[in-house]
Specification:
heterodimer, A: mainly alpha, MetI-like fold, two-stranded antiparallel ribbon, B: alpha/beta, Rossmann fold, 8-stranded mixed sheet, 34% helix, 23% strand, binds adenosine-5'-diphosphate, binds iron/sulfur cluster, binds magnesium ion, MetI-like (chain A), cell membrane (chain A), membrane (chain A)
């Protein structure tokens, strides 16, 4: 098990280094950082001096090593637009994005799994057919359209829920702000989480349905029936558990995409998260923020992947052995 | 005469498909006496597995039991409500499937699967059920059962897994066990052991067995009686010595001829020409007539019904003629 974890850690570091390289390459090839700092009237001498002081004349490898070294200490430089440390800017917005992603993922799982199970077990009922139809809509409608529709219905027409922002937030410690502790914070989460989680919810529902149907056809389910186990034990004890093994993997990976794709939802709902910050950075060619965001997302993906692998090994005894052997 | 454990009368099973209604089982009748082993043989697709599934109530849509009766100790079970039939499965009728590698749920230990089955059917505590599970594993020949009970299926070899499956089939002391090709998927070296084990355990308990197999050698050694199936019908059924040594039905003759004898007499090795018809194209009259060397005019028109003949039942017009001749 330890060897497996170490091997996966080494792989993860490799992935992060590759992403860091891409992030770093942006500094070199997208615009001249000196232009971002000095005014247009600066003399060539001044520019050369700044170049030297920023270490931009050092060999590529040295600059890359310096970038990675600083990134490892969570120093991503100063934002061109805001003239503030990137770490501070991202840190302020991270709780908003992570809370939104978390609630979206919970929504996708809590709604998607039961719907998938139901549509698999009651394939011919009208409700199952309705779920199937709804899931098609969920998969094919673009996120921003879902968001706008929800805003139109529940915020504009009915006036039940806010259409933008996080509501009132409570500060916890130096780093975290949460919307979970106030009524307005919770209300503000509802529409954006549904918008962000809709695609994953329908994906999970379809995946659970397909897997469940597959599992119900297996020999061990047939044998479980032949042993006279109750329908409940077969459906939920035997079939669902086997269904969840692949679902865990996909869901885990989807959590990464939820965070990455929060950009669109955050824009639609003016959600003060990292995604909006990233979009602004792209518009203003604010490379330090773009690079840091890229690395952060890569880091989250890697961590989630690792967690999924470990969880997978816990659920499936066949893997525990191969993992032990590795 | 003692009451048979299982009594099947004129059983019909159909599958409703887009291309029409396929008659997989068409008028099958047989009995199994307490403690008796009935061998069931026939080419693949003859309806052996479907017959077994019908008996244990596991025909699923698009399949359906379209006629006939199945009685367990005299009590009708083919028309029981699902919940009542579920209580019979595993409790009064046990089932052993072909492939032990896929019969067990990979995510649960063998102990969990045994205890779950035992407690579904018997009023035992978790501790008592575990005790019983360990005893059963010992009985089916799993070494160190106290330790192995907590192993997962993938930690067992194919032969060992089939032993676990046997323990599962027998854990509530059923009156009847249906073993559907229990050794086909196993290594040749362990096949005989598994058959011997099934035979011994059932003999000790007085459990009746319906043993489906391709292996005529196994039938000859294990079964008391044998049923030869063809196109969803029974061609011949009777005591194993008679049917194997002196089969009457031309299909049974061909099938028995296909077993090479120990002395390697090649002349016994006759092949039946052609292959079994698809369900959608079962010929009228005797389903075997296009392949039968001895077919005559009546065979393609009249369906032969089972006739009592030399202590067995044969569905073939040849013996009807013989009867008619003898009578005249
Ligand atoms: N679910 C099903 N749908 C349609 N036809 C089936 C189904 N199950 C079995 N059959 C048909 O029933 C016939 C008998 O099958 P089976 O009992 O499995 O044969 P075997 O004697 O080899 O065990 C075969 O022709 C098979 O194609
Ligand atoms: S009934 Fe006719 S065709 Fe069928 S087995 Fe007998 S002789 Fe052959
Ligand atoms: Mg079969």
């Amino acid at each position: 098990m330890l060897a497996f974890i170490i091997r996966r850690l080494v792989q993860s570091i490799g992935v992060l280094l590759a992403v860091a390289f891409i992030a770093f390459a942006m500094f070199r090839f997208v615009g001249d950082p000196v232009n971002q700092i000095v005014s247009i009237e600066a003399s060539p001498e001044e520019r050369a001096q700044i170049r030297e002081s920023l270490g931009l004349n050092d060999p590529f490898v040295v600059q890359f090593a310096r970038y990675v070294g600083r990134a490892a200490q969570l120093d991503f430089g100063i934002s061109y637009q805001f003239r503030q440390p990137v770490t501070k800017l991202l840190g302020e917005r991270m709780p908003a994005t992570l809370e939104l992603a978390f609630v979206s993922a919970v929504f996708a799982l809590v709604v998607g799994i039961p719907m998938g199970v139901y549509t698999a077990l009651r394939r011919d009922s009208w409700l199952a057919k309705l779920f199937q139809a709804v899931s098609l809509v969920g998969v094919s409608l673009p996120t921003f359209l879902i968001g706008i529709l929800l805003i139109y219905v529940f915020a504009v027409t009915l006036g039940w829920l806010p259409s933008f922002g996080r509501g009132e937030v409570v500060r916890i410690g130096d780093w975290w702000t949460t919307g979970f502790l106030t009524a307005s914070g919770l209300r503000a989460l509802i529409l954006p989480s549904i918008t962000l989680g809709m695609f994953q919810m329908t994906l999970i529902m379809r995946l659970v349905r397909a897997e469940m149907l597959e599992v119900l056809r297996t020999d061990y389910i047939k044998f479980a029936r032949a042993r006279g186990l109750t329908r409940r034990a077969i459906n939920f004890g035997h079939a669902l558990k086997n269904t969840l093994v692949p679902v865990i993997t996909i869901t885990g990976l989807q959590l990464g995409s939820i965070i990455a794709f929060a950009i669109i939802t955050e824009t639609v709902f003016q959600w003060p998260g990292m995604g909006v910050l990233f979009l602004q950075a792209v518009q203003n060619v604010d490379i330090p923020i773009m690079a840091a965001y890229l690395l952060l997302i890569a880091f989250l993906f890697v961590v989630i992947n690792l967690a999924v692998d470990l969880l997978y090994a816990v659920v499936d005894p066949r893997l525990k052995v191969s993992v032990r052997a590795a | 005469m003692t009451q048979p454990v299982l009594s099947v009368r004129d059983l019909k099973v159909e599958f409703v498909t887009r291309r029409g209604v396929l008659k997989a089982i068409d008028g099958v009748s047989f009995d199994i006496a307490p403690g008796e082993v009935l061998g069931v043989v026939g080419e693949s697709g003859a309806g052996k597995s479907v017959t077994g599934s019908a008996v244990i109530g596991l025909i699923e849509p698009p399949g359906r039991i379209a006629g006939g009766e199945i009685r367990l100790k005299g009590e009708r079970i083919d028309n029981l409500p699902p919940e009542a039939m579920r209580r019979i499965r595993g409790k009064r009728i046990g089932m052993i499937f072909q492939d032990p590698l896929t019969s067990l749920n990979p995510l649960y230990t063998v102990g969990e699967q045994l205890v779950e089955t035992i407690r579904t059917h018997l009023p035992l505590s978790a501790g008592q059920a575990r005790r019983r599970a360990i005893d059963l594993l010992a009985e089916v020949g799993i070494p160190a059962p106290e330790r192995r009970i907590d192993g997962y299926p993938h930690e067992f070899s194919g032969g060992m897994r089939q032993r676990v499956v046997i323990a599962l089939a027998l854990c509530a002391e059923p009156e009847l066990v249906i073993a559907d090709e229990p050794t086909t998927a196993l290594d040749v070296s362990v096949q005989a052991q598994i058959i011997t084990l099934i035979k011994r355990l059932c003999a000790e308990r007085g459990t009746a067995v319906m043993l489906v197999t391709h292996d005529m050698g196994v039938i000859a050694e294990t079964a008391d009686r044998v049923a030869v199936m063809y196109s969803g019908r029974i061609a011949e059924i009777g005591p194993v010595r008679d049917v194997v040594k002196r089969p009457l039905h031309p299909y049974a003759v061909g099938l028995m001829g296909a077993i090479p004898s120990l002395e390697g007499q090649a002349d016994r090795l006759v092949q039946i020409r052609g292959s079994m018809p698809r369900l959608s194209a079962i010929p009228p009259g005797c389903a075997f007539h296009p392949r039968c060397e001895r077919a005559f005019a009546r065979c393609s028109v009249d369906r032969p019904s089972p006739l009592d003949r030399d202590g067995r039942k044969v569905a073939c017009h040849l013996y009807d003629e013989a009867q008619a001749e003898a009578a005249s």
